[in-house]
Amino acid sequence: MFHRLWSLIRDEVSGIAAARAVAEIARFHRIQASPGFRRAAEWVCEEAARAGLAAGMKSFPADTATHFWGAASFQEWDAHAATLYLIEPAESARKLADFRDLPLHLVARSLPFDGEAEVVVLEKGEEEAEYEGKDVAGKVVLARGNVRRVHDLAVVRRGALGLIYDGMTEHEPVRPAWDLPDAVQYTSFWWQGQKPHGFGFALSPRQGEVLRRLAREHPLRVRAHVDAALYGGWLEVVEAFIPGTTDEEILLVAHLCHPQPSANDNASGAAALLETARALAARIARGELPPPRRTIRFLWVPEITGSLAWLSSQEGRIPHLVAGLNLDMVGQDQEQCGSSLLVESPPEALPSFAGALLSRLRDLLLPEVQTFGGVGRYPLFRTADVPFGGGSDHYVFSDPSVGVPMPMLIQWPDRFYHTSADTPDRVDPRMLGRVAALSGLYAYWLAQAGEQEARWLARELSARFRQRVIAELQAAQTEADEKSAPGREEVRRRLEYRVGRHREALESIRRLAPVDVSPYQAADADFAAQEYRRVADDLPDRPLPAVPEVEGANWAPRRLLQGPAQPEERIARQDAATRDRWWEFQRRVRKRASALPALAEYWADGRRTVAEIAALIRYETGLEATALIAEYLRWLADLGLVE
What we know:
By secondary structure, this protein is α/β, with parallel strands linked by helices. It has four domains: 3-73 and 237-448, 3-Layer(aba) Sandwich (Aminopeptidase), CATH 3.40.630; 77-231, 3-Layer(bba) Sandwich (Glucose Oxidase, domain 1), CATH 3.50.30.30; 451-538; 568-638, no CATH class. The chain is built from 19 helices and 19 strands. Strands 1-11-13-12-14-19-15-18 form an eight-stranded mixed beta sheet, sandwiched between helices. Strand 7 (140-143), helix 4 (147-156) and strand 8 (162-165) form a beta-alpha-beta unit. Helix 17 (596-603) crosses helix 19 (626-638).
């Protein structure tokens, strides 16, 4: 079923050509809604057309009035020059940053400025207490904390002129503190829902430490120049397709944005997608593959914003989108970056065949080298299957209110993520080739799948479900003597949840062909019940986990807009006290799991109560977070996004 198709696509793909495309894309400063992004989009569009695809660009308003469902657009931004000089103490005067040397030195969407200012040094700058006794009005604040938070406290509330950021987010274990002392982190302002204020520069941790040491003995003064502009403009989505013979489509997406160079994030995904499209088009043009039944559509977008813009303009097409795939940060040299190639499943609120299919096809990559004894094969790269985590374009498409099941291929963690060190030399052509071939196999197989393929896929889902049931029940039995282990009734309820998700995933196969999946649904439910009975007596008889009583647990939130809520614009229009509460809430969410808000939205259908949503998320993630989920849904209600 796969091997001839796999060899045709694998042998057509060139990882070296994809790596060259990464280097080309990395030349552009690709801030969302900017001339630099537009030039990169034009380059991708030209390459897609040169490869024989029907290709074009769609433009969407980048202004303060437009919304894409619940997401606010934003103004186009262009920067021509920016410099930052330390001028006092005079004996230490030097140039600190130059946009021409490294565009990342300028915080994206900074406003024009030309002048001198005193520097006030803070640690993180995220707490009100840090500003006590300090006058920052008319000055520049040096801080390591979250740029949006520091900007709110220092510039919006206290009249600072701008910021100097010298932080570097840690990503243990691949990027501990001070692992990249000379890199500069990607930073950005977002002027959604608030009046633009000020400018910002980003320095490396080493540069920041030098300034901090100087400040202990001398006042600091800088001269800043920013030649930039915000204005009503456009943001672009590049679209290419291989036409099918039906009105159904398979959709592949990669985001094209981020500052220069941003090679792995995400020039690698954009380049791999381009190579996938070229390889399929070439095989079809030569008659080595028949034209697909379903159209295969390729999108290069500004991350999340572009997906929302495209979808909100294509609402009539959405029911015809059978499944998708998101490519984000796929090209890493694993030895340099510390990454693993991950297959991230869609959320369980949208059960589907898509994640299991991608995982099964990924396994074709694994037998790369033979064992010493010649009786087995194994891969030379790290890979894993992981649950939904969000944070990229699949988070939009896989929202049940949109309903396009979209797994993601990503490499994570990445030592150089969101820094100036994310350069093309961190990219592995072999990995790009693997991903481009896998993406092509996934897209073309789905594009031509009929009854035979649908029946095979039903058996594949059934086999995977049974393996998971056995593994989870064995784990419950193994952990039975642990104090934190689930009791018999909790295990039964988890299994009941799993059966329900599997039943709907099997049903999704009918998008490919009108096959009868009910025998699998019934037989697999019986199998799960039988396996549970085999171990039930060995499980502890413990009460169900205590669920905290929270206000509003019995109300059933109904979402008012299609797609993810995107509440930040509305938060920015609130008073300072409300913004402070939102900041504290977001910090608690990040400490627990950043995916929780998205999962809460996905399960909210106007029928399930908050308590029921929290229980479903507990089964999906293993996390008890009723209070956080209830609080988030109350936020959305207060902001007019759910009722």
